[in-house]
Amino acid sequence: MVTTKQPSAGPPPPPGKRRRPGRTGPLTSAQKTPGRAGSATATGEPDQQAAAPAAAGRTEPLTPAQAFDALYAFCAPALVRQTYLLTGRRELAREAVERAFQLAWQRWPEVARDRDPAGWVRAVAYDCALSPWHRFRPRYRSPEPPPTDPADRELLHVLLTLPPSYRRTLVLYDGVGLDLPETAAETEASTPAAANRLTQARAVVAARVPELADPAELHRRLLELASAERLSAARPPAVRTGCERRNVFWTRAAIAFTVTIIGATTLTLRTAPTRYEAPVAPAQAVQGVPPPAGLGPLSRADQALRVKLRDAEVSGPERLAPEPE
Question: Can you tell me the distance from the alpha carbon of 181 to that of 19, in angstroms, rounded to the nearest whole number?
Fold first, then answer.
């Protein structure tokens, strides 16, 4: 009897070993601290040094809009493909990336000074894509058409069966190409916890698709799956304009709400009574009082007494007609 050994997923490398070192140039004159870079990754993200010549030729500082457009043009296409691996939905992937860049433009002074602006936007995009509130939206209740390639469809199905934290760790490590400590930091977990999630995620993928037990093969297949779909991002000016319109809308809404509260408070102060006024009790009929009645006819005894009193009014006893002394 011949037994076949089931391939197992390879363990992650030690935390101290860097896999793809790299650096990025500052996006604006205010950002002086270079950040880490992901080189050619499984999600189609190019090496950040490849984008350096365009920025190296500039001597004048970039305006915030130019710096934002440069970051968007560099990161948005790859982020859309990464979030597609997380969600399996094309429209949701584009929406999550657009929302992440809107938040980045809204907080651009903070993002421009961050040591890794691309990582900042990536973390926000992943959070938006994996938000559990999407399940309550009617547009996302029905599944989207799967990839046409059976191998890609099977890999995407396996990814979507993983828990969100495991899926995110697998995409960051075997897809984006981050180191284990960086993956743990971005997923807000300890390094041992991130390594455990990665090992279990690889084991699940290897059990469903045995040829993906090799990390290099898994990396290549993730790249093919992310690049197979035609995913496009919006233009940078449209994202900035949408963010500004959103800010104007919420600012006006906050002002209108504040004015409404102030007006209601003022009206209440002017119309509310300043002292306690007891309410007037409603009228009620008094019960138990006998009705008024006139005198009835006199009896014979009463009539005889009346005649006697009238006759004795003057000639009666002295108490009725006292004699003067």
Answer: 11
Tell me whether residue 248 is exposed, middle or buried, using C-beta atoms within 10 angstroms of its C-beta: 0 to 12, 13 to 18, 19 or more.
Answer: exposed
- Whether the CB-CB separation of 112 and 67 falls below 8 Å is answered with yes
User: Of 3.90.1070, 3.40.50, 2.30.130, 1.10.10, which CATH number belongs to 148-231?
Assistant: 1.10.10
* In the chain, domain spans: 65-145+232-262, 148-231
Place of tokens 């190296």: 56
Please state, in angstroms and rounded to a whole number, the distance separating the CA atoms of residues 31 and 296.
115
Phi then psi for residue 36, to 5 deg, are -75, 165
Across the chain, which distance is largest between two alpha carbons, in Å? Answer: 161
Per-residue pLDDT tens over the stretch 139-159: 777 777 888 888 888 999 999
Determine how many CB atoms are found less than 10 A away from the CB of residue 2: 3
Looking up tokens 């000639």 gives 315
Coil, helix or strand at residue 23: strand
Q: How many residues does the chain have?
A: 325
Nearest to 124 by CA among 163, 146, 95: 95
Instruction: Give the integer Cα–Cα distance in Å for 94 and 266.
Output: 46
pLDDT of residue 21: 36
Q: Which residue has the tokens 């807000």?
A: 188
d(CA 30, CA 24): 14
Which residues of the chain carry a pLDDT beneath 50?
Answer: 1-7, 15-16, 18, 20-42, 44-56
